[in-house]
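Sequence design from tokenized structure. All designs in this work follow the same two-part layout: the structure record, then the generated sequence. An example of the structure record is given first.
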């Protein structure tokens, strides 16, 4: 059996998990999340403990066993605590500002870039060069942060651009003149 798939998921107080029409629904203090449940797997809800079992022993089911357990655990954490990603903007004149449900970026291009936030995601601009993306869906928070980072990736020679706050950048040496 999968080591991760065997681990039980403990539901915190105020969090509820249900199986409705082959869909997992997790409700908590921060909101509600839905995800289709994979066929060939079963879920056992016992009070505040949830375990995922698989029906078959084929290779595909073994791989999906740990995946489904991790997805459910992320849903439980999201509706209970939420997730966040921090981004830093580095460069002279590079900055961002929040206007309603859009983030306006000034990244050295000839025009500002307007980035609309997807539903379920909120952003907070601390200073003008520090951006925090928050939400209850871990996958959506990570995807949104990756799309924002892709607007201006960090340059290898000057390290200018948008990077994750915990990302370490290696600066390349330029040409050495004789």
């Amino acid at each position: 059996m999968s080591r991760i798939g065997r681990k039980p998921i403990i539901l915190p107080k105020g969090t509820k998990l249900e199986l409705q029409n082959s869909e997992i629904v997790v409700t908590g203090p921060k909101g509600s999340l839905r995800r289709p449940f994979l066929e060939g797997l079963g879920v056992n809800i016992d009070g505040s403990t949830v375990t995922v079992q698989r029906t078959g022993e084929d290779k595909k089911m073994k791989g999906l066993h740990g995946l489904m357990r991790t997805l459910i655990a992320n849903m439980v954490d999201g509706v209970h605590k939420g997730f966040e990603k921090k981004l830093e903007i580095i460069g002279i004149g590079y900055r961002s500002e929040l206007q309603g449900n859009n983030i306006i970026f000034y990244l050295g291009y000839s025009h500002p870039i307007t980035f609309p936030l997807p539903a379920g995601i909120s952003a907070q601009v601390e200073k003008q060069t520090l951006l925090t993306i928050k939400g209850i869906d871990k996958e959506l928070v990570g995807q949104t942060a990756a799309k924002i980072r892709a607007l201006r990736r960090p340059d290898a020679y000057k390290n200018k651009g948008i990077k994750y706050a915990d990302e370490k950048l290696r600066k390349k040496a330029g040409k050495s003149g004789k």
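DSSP finds three helices and 13 strands in the chain. We note this feature because it recurs in several other targets discussed in the main text.
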